[in-house]
From TrEMBL, chain A:
GO terms for biological process: transmembrane transport. It comes from the Bacteria. One of its GO terms (cellular component) is plasma membrane. It is found in: Cell membrane. Belongs to the binding-protein-dependent transport system permease family. It comes from Actinoplanes regularis. Its main location: membrane. This is Carbohydrate ABC transporter membrane protein 1, CUT1 family. Keywords: Cell membrane, Membrane, Transmembrane, Transmembrane helix, Transport. The chain crosses the membrane at residues 12-42, 71-96, 108-128, 156-180, 206-226, 261-278. Residues 71-279 form the ABC transmembrane type-1 domain. InterPro entries: ABC_transporter_permease, MetI-like, MetI-like_sf. The keyword Protein transport does not apply. It is a multi-pass membrane protein.
TrEMBL record, chain B:
Residues 67-257 form the ABC transmembrane type-1 domain. The chain crosses the membrane at residues 67-92, 104-129, 135-157, 178-200, 238-257. It comes from the Bacteria. It is found in: Cell membrane. It is a multi-pass membrane protein. This is Carbohydrate ABC transporter membrane protein 2, CUT1 family. The keyword Cell membrane applies. It comes from Actinoplanes regularis. Belongs to the binding-protein-dependent transport system permease family.
């Protein structure tokens, strides 16, 4: 009987098999995390030698109104994108879950933007929203400066992001809905609950794990949005769409201030970690229902 | 009945909203700049022209070199990442060696590292190694396995019937043989899933190639499209042909593998 054999130790084999991924995780994730901390403590333009400046970069970015603005822009972006894409994704999933003939076609169409490069989609929308040559303003019969207006630019970029993500989010809710046993909503209906009540009291609580997943991944990706901003506005007008990822890119690869860019990266890292932990404890604190 | 009508109506509106930008960009790509300037943006091309596509395929702004580089990048990353991840996941799931669980916890912890936060140090480290603006500079960070793929594969490998693997081991098969002849054939679904997700992610990747390459020599498709757009700002017919060409290959793949891809997304939740 194989199970009664004493456990073999496979130290050499184990480490040989791990070797490639140790290079990957060590060299391209752990080492960069250490390096970003080091770089953030120096003043460096990639050309002249780096100069140790302690916490100066942190002091500089935290008192720089531009960085404060880019944090606010990012927060605004996340707050626009997250509720909209989650609610619309759920709505679309509920519609698809009725499984009418042809549903799979709709599902396929709705996922299309997810497999297209965000950069390419951003370029397409930049044209669509162009006030002189674009299709949107022609349809509206009204000239609106979507991407150069300080008020409309961020909502426009957020709307395009929502447009891209809705089908993708809907897929997760669809998978979650497939795990909701029909007897549950049946029972609610027999007890006299209307469709809305049944949804609120039965379906939604059962979807909690899915909702958690969709929100966590949504926060992480929208916090890091870059391609869409690069394609549509390059952070403009006057920084109104300069999200943190774009600010880091500009500091490092346009202005060559590596130290400041590194300090911003560390702040982004800490913020995202804090948000993820907060979300986790929020969802853990609420009842989850075992399904199945 | 009314419910069905409402459902179709709502889904129809959503489908139109999703498809319209694609159709409008294709329509614009079939116009000459003259037609585009003289008639409203929504007017159909009359007559349709293939001049923009000819320019991007055989003309002065050929997207063929970026296409070739993108294909190479995706191939190297996919092969490297899947191989490294499979090996690591097998070790974590099936072998017993000191430090295994501690290392696995470190791998899991790296899932918390946002890609944007390691952009600067990765560039600095690869630059110091003389790999900025090279092919290897583009692929190295992602070709040695991804913690998330390792995590998913490990879960899958652990669920495989233990007796099967032990029997093969008792017959004298080494780990690599067991992996190749027993584990991998049983793991086709998860491997196909990871394959699809990795192809989509790296075909569409933009920020890293943008940062690590500087000239036209190693431009991938997304970077080439962005460069074309800033160079020909306003020449939307050419730019729309470029975005169409850049998104088309994956759309074709999607139509072929639709069912599988939809399932893959929900299995991994990866972006």
């Amino acid at each position: 009987m194989p199970t009664t054999e004493p456990p073999r130790r496979d130290t050499l084999a184990g480490y040989l098999l791990l070797a490639p991924s140790l290079v990957g995780v060590g060299g391209f994730l752990l080492l960069p995390v250490v390096a970003v901390l080091g770089i953030s403590l120096a003043r460096w333009d990639l050309v002249s030698p780096a100069r140790w400046t302690g916490l100066d970069n942190y002091r500089a970015i935290l008192t720089d109104p531009a960085f404060g603005r880019s944090l606010a822009v990012t927060a605004g972006f996340v707050l626009l994108v997250l509720p909209l894409q989650t609610a619309l994704g759920l709505l679309v999933a509920l519609l698809l879950d009725r499984r009418l003939p042809g549903s799979t076609w709709f599902r396929a169409i709705l996922v299309l933007p997810w497999i297209s490069a965000p950069l390419a989609l951003g370029v397409v929308w930049r044209w669509l929203l162009d006030p002189a040559d674009g299709a949107v303003d022609q349809l509206l019969g009204h000239r609106i400066e979507w991407l150069t207006s300080p008020v409309l630019a961020l909502p426009a970029v957020a709307a395009v992001t929502v447009w891209t993500n809705v089908g993708y989010v809907a897929l997760f809710f669809l998978a979650g809905l497939a795990g909701v046993p029909p007897q549950y909503s049946e029972a609610a209906r027999i007890d006299g609950a209307g469709p809305w009540q049944g949804f609120r009291r039965v379906t939604l609580p059962l979807l909690r794990p899915t909702t958690f997943f969709v929100l966590v991944t949504g926060v992480i990706s929208s916090f890091q949005v870059f391609d869409t901003v690069y394609a549509m506005t390059r952070g403009g007008p006057a920084g109104r769409t300069e999200v943190v990822a774009y600010a880091i890119y500009r500091e490092a690869f346009v202005d060559y201030r590596m130290g400041r860019a590194a300090a911003m990266s560390v702040v982004l890292f800490l913020l995202l970690t804090a948000v993820t932990i907060a979300q986790r404890s929020y969802f853990r604190g609420r009842t989850t229902y075992e399904v199945g | 009945m009314r419910r069905a009508v409402f459902t179709y109506l709502a889904l129809g509106v959503a489908a139109v909203l999703i498809l319209a930008p694609y159709l409008m960009s294709v329509q614009t790509s079939l116009k000459t700049p003259g037609q585009f300037a003289q008639r409203p943006p929504l007017a159909p091309p009359r007559p349709p022209t293939g001049a923009n596509y000819a320019e991007l395929l055989v003309g002065g702004h050929s997207l063929i070199p970026p296409l070739v580089i993108t294909v190479q990048v995706v191939l190297v990353v996919v092969i490297g990442q899947l191989t490294s991840s499979v090996l690591a996941a097998y070790a974590f799931a099936r072998l017993d060696f000191p430090g295994r669980d501690a290392i696995f916890r470190v791998y899991l912890a790296t899932l918390m590292v946002p890609a944007v936060a390691v952009l600067v140090p990765r560039f600095v480290l690869l630059g110091a190694a003389g790999l900025a603006d090279t092919f290897w500079g583009i692929v190295l960070p992602s070709m040695f396995g991804s913690p998330y793929a390792i995590f998913l594969l490990r879960q899958f490998f652990r669920a495989l019937p233990r007796e099967l693997l032990d029997a093969a081991r008792l017959d004298g098969a080494g780990h690599l043989r067991v992996l190749r002849h027993v584990v991998l054939p049983l793991s086709r679904p998860i491997l196909a899933t990871l394959l699809i997700i990795t192809v989509v992610t790296h075909w569409n990747d933009f920020l890293w190639p943008l940062v690590v390459t500087s000239g036209v020599r190693w431009q991938v498709l997304t970077v080439a499209v962005a460069a074309l757009q800033s160079q020909y700002n306003g020449d939307w017919t050419l730019v729309m042909a470029a975005t169409t060409l850049a998104t088309l290959p994956l759309l074709v793949l999607f139509v072929i593998f639709q069912k599988h891809l939809v399932r893959s997304i929900t299995v991994t939740g990866m972006r």
